[in-house]
Design a protein that fits this description.
By secondary structure, this protein is an alpha+beta fold. It folds into 6 domains: 10-182, no CATH class; 185-310, no CATH class; 311-340 and 678-856, no CATH class; 342-450 and 457-526, no CATH class; 527-654, no CATH class; 877-922. A hairpin with a 2-residue loop joins β3 (371-377) and β4 (380-388).
Length: 939
């Protein structure tokens, strides 16, 4: 028994102390110790309260046992139990009370955020429209009062049950026999306990009045007409009745008999049923429903105002758009010249392309979903698709504990590509690539080692003297380039004590026995960016998509942290998981899904960074007006740095977070309507369309640089579109500025004319698939065992209307020796009713904006000499034959390069093929129907 207790104590100590060491390694030890202290206080407070109060009532009930118990069959049966229990009464009592206290304390300790937030609450300086209380009362105070009431209720109920059991066991209560069924002391004791219970019920009824601010009875969330005019006065009356009923029970101390308390209790139950249930239902059925809009108008208005404020969309601008589209070709061309670089490289599709072209070795890995950032390249700000080359583990067949934990410890390299163009062969045009990192690359990376990332191993031992950790393989004598970790992060394990603790924690005896672990060694674990920031700031809800960036030569992960609440009065509640779920979160592992927590308030309060090399965590206050953030900054002092301390180089890479935007777009699908009558009718409501490339799932928002109407220059934005409810056409286009310091956070909605709504995403996708020329182009792409993969369908405000751009990728069918990946096939464009497919965006725009027909030009019949007379003169047969010979040679070179996995050669040959086809077209000669589609990949 002693050994078991010592083992449990050691395991608890190991868990606590290793957590302290981990938090200390990132500089946030106070966060863990503050939580631990709060949990201990609540555990002891609630556990002792339950133990002492229930124990006191058990002791009182035992002391009040009758000295004489009449003989009866019932008492004879109980005597056998008393004979067993009495010799062990203290042991049994303390064991049960200890278990009860342990369960209660454990349950309440988990509510430490409620307690700490209450102690450090910050006012919102916004009052609810019914009681005039500050919103902080509902967010911080009300949950704490309900917690206290819940603990006290449970204590009193268990005290009643325990007292009844003891009184019955020792004869104070009887079910059989003549005379009173309860002795006077037992009656008095239980009367007091029931009186306390009903007194607590009176307090609960009173505080229930404030809970009406979250009612779901009416048309919208928040107190409705029936709540305010029926349930609110009912709760007040019930509180008074409960108070009187409690007095009746207490009066039983001075008089004998249960009639008066019984009458009071019966009155309370009937009042609760009639006033709390039947009366509001009658008001709802016979007053509200026949004239619902008139009765609920005021409360709908309250809900609209509170919801827009709680989700931060009260400043959203809705402007009419699309009434006068530009048709003049010259003006459209001028608009196209100002269009800038459209991000045609889809980060949700080309992850496998990055994987095949930049993995270099099979033990590296890129995520399926890449990220979009901005970088100054050649003096111009460019939308860039970025990713890190992370480690997936030691190679198969070469696994060992030393290799897994001490050699293959980290990834290597930051890879980026232009978002607005492709290289030859339809592959991404990389800005930074390959290994080792080149000093000539346009994005300078000084520390390319990735020790902290989304795909890092469970734990690694790094930094020991003479330890060689693989950076990347090369052609040197050793076959690899290695490094030795010297970052600040990690827990030192150069002592036997620490080795023993972590051998216990990870259940790995090698940590204790291995002679390879030497001086200065550190243990890296729990090192994914989301996990690290979540432990450093447990009060935050984190965005599902951390993204890497390079700041002053170092690779940093940037994460967006949210403060949320479900207690904002009158605000509409939603499931966070459902609101943020779309194509990417449903199918891609790199973007984490949010939990199905219900919220009705949300702010992007914190920007966090994690250094990919040494794990340094920084938290920066972003929303300086958020009261919840201010509250937690009081709780965890000096853990969140002020916004003024954000380095400008870092701030330039901040972007508007996706999960907040998804929540806001779901809110604005309805709450762009601010008139209560129109809101009630719901005719103008929108919905987020389905992703055309993945039916049944919502279309994700897209990052892109664009110029909104009225803006002089392009701005990096996060965009989405809306359909009318149950209608495939386009109702509105929504964008939020994502460039800090300019228009960051400004939501602008372009509302289309209701009588002439343009095509929605599904209709545009269908028009691409059914257009004669585009259909022919796509059919050609799908030959030879390839398939097409649609990229992001971008919607861009353009020329008073909308321009649709979609890259269409091709991918080989694959096989045992091939690992297919997407490459660009065509870029599809639609403006108005004109549709085009071309190899580049510029060519496609020229077709749709210049009035060029999407149909191919008619062929000119050859003359008797076999020559075709193009416009402006005759063409010699020898010239045509020479060009055809060039084309045949280019096709053969392409096939040879493809078999050898020579991707630069494939790109060069493909360029020659297209040049030859262009020459034939210029001469009026039909080009061959078949064009090569690069397929295959290096194994």
């Amino acid at each position: 028994m002693t050994a078991a207790v010592l083992l449990v104590a050691f395991l608890i100590f190991t868990s606590i102390y290793t957590n302290v060491l981990w938090h200390r390694s990132i500089g946030f030890s106070s966060v863990y110790t503050t939580q631990l202290q709060a949990k201990v206080v609540l555990f002891l407070g609630a556990g002792l309260l339950m133990t002492l109060v229930v124990g006191a009532n058990v002791a009182v009930a035992y002391r009040l046992r009758p000295a004489y118990r009449p003989l009866s069959v019932e008492q004879q049966g109980l005597e056998r139990y008393r004979a067993v229990i009495d010799p062990r009464r203290r042991l049994i009592s303390w064991s049960l009370l200890g278990l009860l206290g342990l369960l209660t304390g454990s349950s309440v300790a988990g509510q430490w955020p409620v307690w700490l937030a209450f102690l450090n609450r910050t006012p919102f300086n916004v009052q609810d429209p019914e009681f005039g209380k500050d919103v902080s009362f509902y967010v911080f105070t009300y949950p704490f009062l309900r917690l206290v009431l819940g603990v006290v209720f449970a204590t009193v109920i268990l005290s009643i049950l325990a007292a009844v059991m003891v009184h019955y066991l020792y004869g104070g209560l009887r079910l059989q026999g003549p005379g009173d069924k309860a002795s006077p002391p037992a009656r008095a004791h239980l009367s007091v306990l029931f009186g306390v219970f009903i007194l607590l019920k009176a307090f609960a009824y009173w505080f229930d009045r404030y809970g009406l601010m979250h009612s779901e009875r009416g048309v919208t969330n928040g107190a409705s007409y029936a709540d305010i005019n029926a349930l609110l006065p009912a709760k007040t009356i019930l509180a008074v009745i409960a108070l009187l009923c409690a007095v009746m029970f207490f009066s039983n101390l001075l008089r004998r008999g249960m009639m008066l308390p019984g009458v009071g209790f019966t009155l309370l139950v009937l009042s609760a049923v009639l006033l709390g249930g039947v009366y509001p239902l009658l008001i709802q059925q016979f007053q509200v429903k026949p004239d619902e809009l008139a009765k609920e108008r005021e409360f709908i208005s309250r809900n609209i105002e509170a919801t827009r404020k709680a989700y931060g969309v009260d400043g959203a601008k809705v402007v009419p758009y699309g009434q006068q589209p530009v048709n003049d070709e010259k003006k459209l061309q001028e608009e196209a010249d100002r269009l800038g670089g459209v991000r045609v490289l889809d980060p949700n599709v080309v992850g496998e392309t990055f994987q095949q072209l930049q993995r270099i070795r099979p033990f590296y890995r890129f995520p399926d979903t890449l990220d979009v950032d901005r970088y100054q390249v050649d003096g111009k700000l460019i939308d860039t698709v970025v990713a890190l080359r992370e480690l997936s583990g030691a190679p198969e067949g070469q696994r060992s504990w030393v290799k897994d934990r001490m050699v293959y410890t980290h990834g290597y390299g930051f890879v980026s590509a232009y978002g607005n163009r492709f290289a030859d062969g339809g592959v991404p045009d990389f800005i930074t690539k390959n290994m080792p990192v080149s000093a000539e690359q346009k994005i300078k990376v000084q520390r390319p080692e990735i020790y902290f990332g989304e795909r890092t191993a469970n734990y690694s031992v790094v930094g020991g003297k003479g330890q060689q950790e693989l950076n990347y393989p090369d052609n040197s004598e050793s076959g690899q380039q290695s490094s030795n970790y010297d970052g600040q992060g990690g827990v030192s394990i150069d002592s036997f004590f620490h080795k023993m603790l972590y051998a216990t924690k990870f259940q790995d005896r090698n940590l204790l026995l291995s002679g390879a672990i030497n001086d200065d060694a550190k243990l890296l674990y729990d090192r994914s960016p989301r996990e690290m920031v979540q432990k450093a700031a447990p009060w935050l809800t984190l965005d599902g998509d951390p993204y890497p960036t390079v700041v002053n030569g170092r690779v940093l992960w940037i994460l967006d942290g949210y403060t949320t609440s479900s207690s904002y009065p009158y605000s509409e509640e939603m499931s966070l998981g459902d609101a943020t779920r779309d194509t990417i979160t449903d199918t891609r592992s790199a973007v984490a899904q949010q939990a199905d927590d219900h919220v009705n308030y949300m702010r992007n309060s914190v920007k966090a960074t994690v250094d990919a090399y040494d794990g340094t965590v920084h938290l920066y206050q972003w929303d300086e007006n958020d009261p919840i953030t201010k509250t937690w900054m009081k709780v965890f002092d000096d853990t969140v740095q002020p916004r003024s301390s954000i380095p400008p180089e870092l701030e330039a890479h901040f972007r508007y977070p996706q999960d907040l935007f998804k929540v806001q777009r779901k809110i604005l699908a309805q709450y762009h309507v601010t008139d209560p009558s129109a809101f009630y009718n719901g005719e103008g409501f929108w919905e987020v369309p389905q992703d055309p490339s993945s039916q049944g799932k919502r279309q994700p928002p897209y990052y892109q640089s664009l110029r909104m109407p009225g803006q002089d220059q392009e701005s990096f934005s996060l965009t989405t579109v809306f359909n009318p409810r149950n209608n495939p056409q386009l109702a509105a286009f929504m964008a939020v500025g994502s460039t800090p310091g300019r228009d960051y956070g400004q939501i602008q909605i372009l509302q289309m004319p209701r009588n002439a709504q343009p095509a929605g995403p599904g209709q545009v996708q269908n028009s691409f698939e059914t257009d004669t020329q585009v259909k022919a182009d796509l059919f050609a792409l799908r030959q030879g065992g390839t398939k097409t993969v649609p990229g992001n369908l971008l919607t861009i405000p353009f020329g008073g209307s909308l321009l649709y751009v979609e890259p269409m990728y091709t991918m080989a069918a694959g096989g045992t020796e091939q690992q297919p990946y997407p490459i660009l096939g065509k870029i599809l464009v639609r403006y108005g009713d004109k549709i085009a497919a071309a190899d580049t965006l510029e060519e496609a725009l020229e077709q749709v904006l210049g009035g060029t027909s999407t149909a191919p030009p008619p062929e000119t019949p050859p003359d008797e000499g076999g020559e075709q007379p193009p416009e402006g003169g005759q063409v010699s047969l020898a010239e045509v034959q020479a060009i055809n010979a060039e084309l045949d040679k280019a096709l053969k070179d392409f096939d040879a390069a493809q078999k050898n996995g020579d991707y630069p050669g494939m790109g060069e040959a493909l360029k020659r093929v297209r040049d030859a086809q262009a020459k034939l077209a210029a001469l009026g000669q039909p080009a061959p129907a078949a064009s090569p589609s690069p397929t295959g990949s290096p194994t």
